[in-house]
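Quick board copy: two proteins, each given as sequence then C-alpha cells.
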Amino acid sequence: MKLSEEGFERIDNYLLDRLSPNEKKIFELEIETNSEFAKEVEIRKAIIEQINIVYIEKVAEEILEEKRIKSKNSIQIFLKKQETWWALAASISILIIFSWHFLPNLFVKEDKLIVETLQRIPESYKNIQPRDNNPGMTGNNPLENELTEAYKFFKEEKYIFCIPILERYLEKNKNDYEVHFVLALSYLQIGNNMQALSNLKILEKQSLFSERAEVLLKLSSLHLLKKQNEGKICNWLDEVAEIGTNEQKQLSKNLGKLCD
C-alpha cells in the first residue's frame, strides 16, 4: 500500500497518542477494515519501538559507563589520599574537573571515528535515482513509483519514511543489492544497527557490488562497537586497503589502529 508523507504522519500521530478521540476511532476503524493499512501501521510501530529501544540502550550505556569511571576513580583517590579531608576534597575536585574536560576525549575520538564511518553516505547515493535496470521495474510497474518515492525520502533525510517502502520493495526483489545498501544506510542513520547489519551481511557476499569497500568499512565499524570478530575486521580492512578510494583506504588504516 502506497502512503503519502501525510499518511505516515497520521500513523505516527496515532502511535504517539496525538489524535483526538474522534480521529482515533476513525483511524482504528480503518485498521479493522483495511488489512494493508493495518500492516503499514505495524511496520511503523516496530520502527518507532526499535528507535526507542536503541535510544534507551544508548542512554543506559552512557549512564553505566559514567558511573563505572567515577567509581573507579573514587577508589583510586581514596587509596592515594588519606592525609586530610581537605586534601581528599581537593583531589576529588581536581579529578572531577579532569574527568569532565579530558577523560571524555580519550573515548570520544575512537567512538567518533566509528560513528562517522557508520553514518557516511557515499556521494553517489546522496542524489540517488532508481536505475532503469532495477529488477521488477519494467513498464508501468507500481514498484517503480514506490522506489522513486523511497529514494526521494532518502535524499531528504526522511529515513523513517523510506524504510518501510524499501522493506516492502525487497519482499519482491530480494536480489536488488543497491536497495539493500540504501536500506542499510537508512537504518544506520536512525541508529538501528541490528537491521543495518542484516542487510550489510547480504552485501558482504556480493564481491562485485559497486560499494563493496563502503560495506566492509561499515561492517568493520559495527563489529568494533561490540569488540567482536577481530579476525574478520582485519580481513575486511585489508580488502578495503586494496579496492577502496584514497579516502576509504585512510579510514581503513585509522579503524585498523582500534584493533591493536
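And the next:
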Amino acid sequence: MTEAHLNHADLHHILSKMPSALRNLIKNNSLMLAGGAIRSLITRERISDWDLFGADEYTLKAVAAKVEAAYGPGSRTHKSKNAYTILAHGRTPVQLIRRWLYTSPEQLWQDFDFTVARAVIWYDTGKGWCSATDPNYYADLASRRLRYCAPERQEDAGGSMMRVMKFVSKGYIIAPEDLAMVMSRITRRIRWEHELVRKDDGARIMAGLLREVDPLTIIDGVEMEEETPATISEEALRGIPGEDVDWSASTKEVTL
C-alpha cells in the first residue's frame, strides 16, 4: 500500500512537544510513536497519552521500568492484556503496547482501523526522524471524516465501534458505508463462523438499511412511525535505553 508522510512542520512540532526523555527512549530502543498523540498535536488538542510500539515485549517491559523510574515517587505501572501504562500525578500517561508487536512502521500504521489514526513516527540511524501516514490522512483529518480501513488484526469485535463513538463525540462524521463495515465486523464474530453470510454482503446490506433512515423522520433521537412498513432495497440485497529524565515538553531545537 502506498504511504505518505507528515509534513516537515508537523513532524517538527510533534517532536518539539515530546519530552526529551521520551525521544531518547524511542531512539535508543527502536520504538515507534503512533496513536492519538500525533493527531492531537496536529489539531492542537490535548494529549491523553503517548502510545509507543515495539517488536518484543522484553524491550517494552524494560522501557516501562525506565519511564516509571523517571516519573519518580508516586508513579506506578499498570499491566493489562493490551499495554504497560505508566501513571503519575501531573504527567501524561505513557502506554507501551504489548498486545500487538511490530517490526516495521509500515506494518504498524496499516494495522490501525481509521485513516485519521494511521500515522507513525520513528528514528532511523541513517535518516534521522521519519514518519509515515495513510495517503488520506491529512484530507480526512481536515474534514474530520472517519474512513474505515478494515484491518485484519486480533482485537475485540466491538473495538472499532467504541472508537467510532469516541470520534463522533469529538465532531467527526462517518459515512453509512464505513459505519456498516464497522458493524459487520461485530456480526462476523457471531455469524461468519457459521458461514451464514459473506463479509462484503453483510456490509452492503447494513449500508442499505442505514441509508433508508431519513434524518428528517427522527426527532430528538426517537424515530417516528411510518405509515407503510420499511423494506430492504433491491440494491442492498443484490450484494447478498534513554538516560535523560526531563519529562517536561522540550523547548530545545529538534534536528530532523
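Board note added afterward: The chain has two domains: 8-137, 143-238.
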